[in-house]
Write a structure and sequence with these properties.
One of its GO terms (molecular function) is acyltransferase activity. This is Acyltransferase. InterPro entries: Acyl_transf_3_dom, Acyltransferase_3. This protein is mostly helical. It has 15 helices and no strands. Helix 3 crosses helix 9, helix 3 crosses helix 12 and helix 9 runs parallel beside helix 12. The two termini are about 20 Å apart. The N terminus is likely disordered.
Length: about 350
Amino acid sequence: MEFITGNYMLKDIQALRFFAILFVVFLHLPIILPNNHTYNELRNFTNTDSGVELFFVIAGYFLSLTLDKSSNHINSTPDKIVYLIKIYIKKIKRLSPPVYFWIAIPMLFSLITKNSELWLPYNLMMEKFFASFVWLRNFEEIGTEGNFGYMWALSLEMQFFIIYPLVYLTFGRKKTIITSVVICVFMMFYRPGGGPAWMFRFDPLLYGTLLYYIVSSIDLTKLSLQEINLSPLKKSAIGLMMIISLAVVPQALIHLWTFRFSAAAMISTVCVFLAVMNTGFFTSFPSILNKIVSYIGGRSFSLFCCHIPVWFIIFQLTHGHNISDSSRIVLQILSMFIATELTYQILEKPFIKKK
């Protein structure tokens, strides 16, 4: 769920990143809000796990954009190899600093505090650290799940970013598109692996790549809904309706376990399509709200990496102290945003390619 590739940036895409990370953080709130009645009631008709699909569709879209714009002049095998290596190095440099830092923190706390109930046994935490370090966390998580399993998504994305460009440059655009369509249709009805298959749902990334090919083949200036006289209120209502659908529809399809992931990917694809038309469906809120949405959306990767470790750090630091649950929760939320900003400024921003 890396959140930007290259210089192509749209405000609506940043807004979608805001909603995606909001979904992910909401999904993880039981860590700090155990047995909360209001939260449980909301979860009865929503499933914000679909925020991952939204992140993946965005990532797939920008990967296709990069490949399509940069690889047309590459013909010889040596040039393809060099190009692939450059893509991999750029991706690793972009993701690694925040990821490696925030997988090291739980490992260090596990080693120092020996609080196995909070941080897991140090040998298991070490196993998770190295699995994350080599981008195989989704494979490791199948056998030993833990509170820090959220890193599976970044491992899956890295695996996709390694395999997809290789397939694209080897077999060409047409065969890659056909194969992607076949895989997406197949995964509507069957997902290999049974129960753990939810950690291998790479089809939303394929939906994102296919969306780019569709968008690049049409004239957005003619299709653009800017020609339709929609007020900011109506645009916001449509945008929020799509976001709400992304939370509600997969939950309504809970008994169609395989297809609900595809449904989330489809809704996410529509959201990204509306966003790349740059018509303001996700940025027509009042100015102050747009600034908040853009600010958090721009830091969504850092927030994703740090939110759970920070919550556990506060658990560790407040253990044994006379502090109320409400005060601890406030401290965890504040610390999460402070850590997000520091992570963004120190570990993420320096590695974002400037235009």
